[in-house]
Each structure stands twice: as C-alpha cells, then as structure tokens.
Amino acid sequence: MVSTFAEYGKVSKQYSSLTLPLPPGPSESPAEQQEQYQSDPFGYLGICRERFGDAFTARHVQPTAPRVFISDPADVQAVFGEPANPMAASAKAAVGAYGERSVILLEGEEHIERRRLMLPAFHGEKLTFHELTIAEIANAEVESWPLEQPFALLPRMRALTLQVILRSIFGVSDPDVLSLIVEPIGRGAGLTELREVIDSWMLGEIDARRSDPQLAERGDVLSMLILARFDDGSEIDDAEIGDQLFTLLNASYETTATALAWTIDLLLHHGPALERLLAEIDEGESDDYLRCVVKESLRLRPVLMLTGRELAADLETETLSLPAGTIVSAAIGLINTRPDLYPEPFAFKPERFLENPPTTYGWLPYGGGTRRCLGAAFAELQMRVVLRTIFSLRTLVAESDEMEAPRMRGITLTPPNGVRVIATPR
Length: 426
Hints:
CATH 1.10.630.10; 17 helices; alpha+beta; 4-stranded mixed beta sheet; disordered N terminus; 3-stranded antiparallel beta sheet; globular
C-alpha cells in the first residue's frame, strides 16, 4: 500500500493524458488512487500538486467520473463565488437522507432564503446564550473522565458535542428525550431509523411549542425556526423544520468532535503553544491566542478535505479552462497549506493568525461561497469553550510521543486511534 508522500512519488512516474479536456492527473486505477487518498490524504494530494500544479484531475472520489481538484485561491473564488454552480450530484446523494427540504440540498433562491432564516440562530447574542450551555455540558463531561489512565478522547468529544447539539439546537433538556435520541446514535443506527426516532418526538414537540406563550424567550434553534417567517409571512412547515434540524445534527456534532480531538493532539505535541494557551486561560483576560489555536488547528487538520461544485457554465480563469458540467473540488488540505500563504505551512504556529487573519479563499475548513457552513461561528465558539474548560480542569498528556497520522474515515479526516491521552486534575 502506498502510504507516504515519498512512496507515492516513486510509483507515480507514468501518467496518461485523459481524453476529456481536463488538466492531467495520476494514471493509477481509481481503486489505487482511492487507497492512496484514504491512507495518506495529505501525501496523495501533495504529490499530485507537486507533479501537476494547482489543478489536476483524479478519480479517487468518484471512480466513474473524473473530477478536477483546485487549490489556487483565485480559481476557488471563481468556482465557489458563483452561486449558479450547484452542489455536485454525488454529494447530494450522500446527504439525501437528511430530507428533501434540507438547506444542503436546495439550490438558488430557495437555498438562500433558508440560509437567511437560519443564520441568526448562530450569530450575535444567540452565541452568548449557547456559551453558557456549552460550558455546563463540557464541565460535566470532563469531570466524568478517568484519571491517570489512558483513554481515547474522540469518543468523549462525540458524547459532549452531541449533548450540545441536542440542548442548544433542539432545545432538549428532558433526560428521557435525550436518552431516546442518544441511544440509536450510540449503537450506530442508520439515518432512516434515527430520523423516525427524532420525528416521533419532534412533531409533537413542535405542536406544544407553537402554543407556548414563552416560546420567544427560548434561544434554541428549533424554537427560532418555529417562530421564523418567510418574506410572504408564511411559516416553515413541520416536515421542513424536521429536515433542517436533522441536517444540523448530522452535519455538526461529529465534525466538531473530530476538530476538538485534532486540536488537543496538536497542542499536546507542541509544548510552547500549549504553555502559551494555558497562560492565557489562567489570566482569564483574553481569548486571542485560543482563537488562533482553533484557526491553526482547522488549517492543519480540516475535518473535511474536499468540497465540490458542478460548473453551470464554461469556466475561464488565468490558469483554468473547464467546460460546463465539470465537477470541481476545492482541495481544502492543499489550500490551507500553501507556502505562499503560510510560511512553514506544516508547522503548528497559532501566532501566525494574531496579526494576519485568514483570507476568505485561502482558509476553507467550512467551505466557501453561498454554501459556507451555516454553523461555522457556533462550531468555533463550541471549540473555544470546550478547550478552555478542559485545560482549566485537567492536565493532559499524550499517551504517545507521536502525533496521530491523518486518515480518511468516509469523507472526514480522522485520528485513527481517537487521540489517546492521560488526564490528571489541574
């Protein structure tokens, strides 16, 4: 198996021109490309860029159809800044179970209209409301951790972020309802079964909340969607509310948990950064460095490595000429490690963001354009609160001197051993 950057370079000496008018790319079979990408995603994408430049064609995502991968911010802006370019059909199929009215699946004005309704729930004063809930959940989770014995951090982060979603997004506080939803997730139930379980509770809950005179006082997203109105004054129907809530659940808790695990793995293997963060937390006067830690972790370990669009029309840039219908993916892992944007691109240096915030299309952990993740601000708030809580209560030490090697698990960049740590009271 080709699993390192250098090994991939040794075996990738012959390339054949593709018959389509697309940029060149690796000539290995789709199965070989997929194996290389799954086992060493940064190495595979990196050697492709080294050999072919910022744009190349590969088949590791969808073997039956070539896809163009881009990593030049100007090209990314040209593709993702054009609202007419829809989400790729293969990506829509992967999330089709979220519901036909899911904001992820809608296009054009319908998509924009739903985003407009949902965005206020994740910005401004609503974030302050969520912060208190996140801190409470994080504190309880950390207090439950075993002491002075190794354990995997990722499952703990999943349990924590799931509780955050259910309480902040769904507005669930009843332990019986929490157990009802957590149980099928915990045993790996399929999306269809999970949706049935959630709907069995939610539809009755929506009716109850519509008649609640205190509904406007609640700050959870479910309540906000019940109160929301379209421009013509109509309300969102119950089935669509279910689609949007189910989407938020499945698209958020796992990714945020993984991002938290990666961040702690990075910190525990970079002593100066951890010491600086601990000093800031202890002083309690600022979270400037903490914010940079989150951004730098998302740069080096983006949970989603790719985000794609289908060209609605021919694309012409200074470096690209692609026909309409081409599937184009922004290679987030390559964009985030461009040497011209980030000196020492593979070094963990959170301070790089203290004076220079990331550019719109040069840092893409949440995608870009009109489909940028709705909950980006909420996810970063959650990461900051959880990290602050963890390092206030516990001293963590990595079980291994070596960082986790990034691997693909489905579409996410995952630490295969779950980031094993040893915790002691601080």
